[in-house]
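FAQ: What does a multi-protein file look like?

Like this. Sequence, then tokens, then the next protein.
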Amino acid sequence: QVQLVESGGGLVQAGGSLRLSCAASGHTFNLYVMSWFRQAPGKEREFVSSITLRGGSNTDYADSVKGRFTISRDTAKSTVYLQMNSLKPEDTAIYYCAARQTTNHIYWGRGTQVTVSS
């Protein structure tokens, strides 16, 4: 089992920044990629960013956040971060952390609310 706990959400004005954290615990040894997704009210959950946990830190971003968001990892702490800059009202959503095992099983966190006011 793997537990994921997100933190760092909150209320920020447009143009501001937030840093989300996702701490993994439990059987983390066979995790190979961690990702951030988000879900806005009335919309489907969508991919935001991902990072591989082994070897080089290969990253991927949704087009809507490229150049504004940066994903990073601290392997020693089993933690992944999402630095969000130049936030826009359309970034308002619940942000979820996900972790994929080598078996392709995916674990999800409970989410953290990000609200960007205009």
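And here is the next protein:
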Amino acid sequence: QVQLVESGGGLVEAGGSLRLSCAASGRTFSSYVMGWFHQAPGKEREFVTAISPYGINAYYAESVKGRFTISRDNAKNTVYLQMDNLKPEDTAVYYCNIRRVVTPTMSFWGQGIQVTVSS
């Protein structure tokens, strides 16, 4: 059974940093895309960042470019999100997502973790 467990969220002041981790279990995910989405109150879930299977390419939403960094450790089946210079508008529940983009496609989600940035 696939399980994704996020950690590292919390409350931080504007300008501060947090590092999220998502540890996956149940299979090997080295050939899967790993990423993060977030959902603010009253809004839809939005893409934040993703990293290609072997970490060659990373993709970021415009709102986080230059502030967030995604990385992965395939040996640990873990993806990380380093968030620097946090802003109040980054406040949201952050969800880890791991997906297989070749047939058969599949997608797995973590339970979500709260990040709150105070002004």
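Q: Is there any per-entry metadata?
A: Some entries carry free-text notes. For the entry above: The longest strand covers residues 92-100.
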